[in-house]
Each structure stands twice: as structure tokens, then as C-alpha cells.
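Sample intake sheet
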Amino acid sequence: MKEAIIHSIFPTPVYLSKLDRKLTSLELKFVDKNKKDFFKNAGNITSNNNYILNEKPFLNIKKELYLIIKDYFEKIISPSNNITPYITQSWLNYTDKNQYHHKHAHPNSLVSGVFYINCHEELDKIKFFNEVYKTIKPEVKNWNFWNSDSWWFQVKTGDIILFPSNLVHMVENKEGTNTRISLAFNVFIKGTVGNNKNLTELIV
């Protein structure tokens, strides 16, 4: 039999990048300061400040994240209209040993992102889920992109990951003795979506 070719159509984008510098002492002090002002999440803690990227110590990080967000939109969404992505809310997550971040998605957002400030390079991961109901579900011999219900990526300090906001994700029980620190953010758009003549125009 001739070898088959398998195409993957309509894939879900998971965009990986990296901040090409270390955080400054001022930025790191700001991260530590916000750990003292938190609320308890389902399995870890989150900063009470949920517009963290609007704070002066993080303005340079915000500028650098914008460049990455713009690259995501150009390469993945590739809009023909003049639309501008912008960060809505942003917050810090702190996860210690044996803590976790519950399974969730991000409503009222188009794209979500995570910037990893402190990670264990061998143990820390982010896990994504395909929650489409399957009428028939055979037992699987070898997992791959097509038959998996979940998929994880190992993450390192400085990594940045962007994905559609409706993609369900979580952090499983934290291993290692370090505090996993991440800066999460949501992205929406300004401008004109759709086409006036096609009666699909939406101005946001």
C-alpha cells in the first residue's frame, strides 16, 4: 500500500515565544510585593491587582508583550481590516508545591497569554484540553494530535504562550520547591470587524 499523507486542517494555534531579557530588580521587587496582596484561587493564589500591566514597574514588559501579540495577530489571524489588539485585564499567579491552577477558559476575550516569571525548567507545564464530546471513543494504543483529549507543553522562565481564550487549560499539582509565578493576560480588539457590503460589519 502506498504511504498515506495526513493533513491537519483547522488546527488550534498555541503560540510560543520568549522575552529576550531577564527581569530587572525593580520588576522582580514588584512581583514579590504583589504576592502579599492576593486572593485565594481554587488551587493557588492570584494578585488582587488585575490590571497589573498598567502599573509603572511593568510598563516595559507591557510594550514587549504588545510586539508579541501583534505578531500573533499578523501570523495567525491575519486580519484584512485595520484592527488593533489591546490587553484588557492582567494579573499574577503564584503556585507553590502541591498547589494547582484549576481547569478554566477565559470568557470575554479573544486571545489569552501567559508570561512565565519563575518556573522549574524540568517540572512546570501547562496543560490544554479538547472538550468536544465524542460519541464513539475507542481505547487508544498510541496518543497523537488527532486522538488526544489533552496536550501539555513544558514551560521555562521567560517563556510566553498565546492561545485562543476559549481553549480550556490548567496547571496540575505543582512539583518542585520553587514558587511558580506567571503573569496572565487577556486580549481584545478595537476597530472594524467584518465587511459593510456583506452585512457583517461590527465596529468595536
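Comment: The longest strand covers residues 180-193. DSSP finds two helices and twelve strands in the chain.
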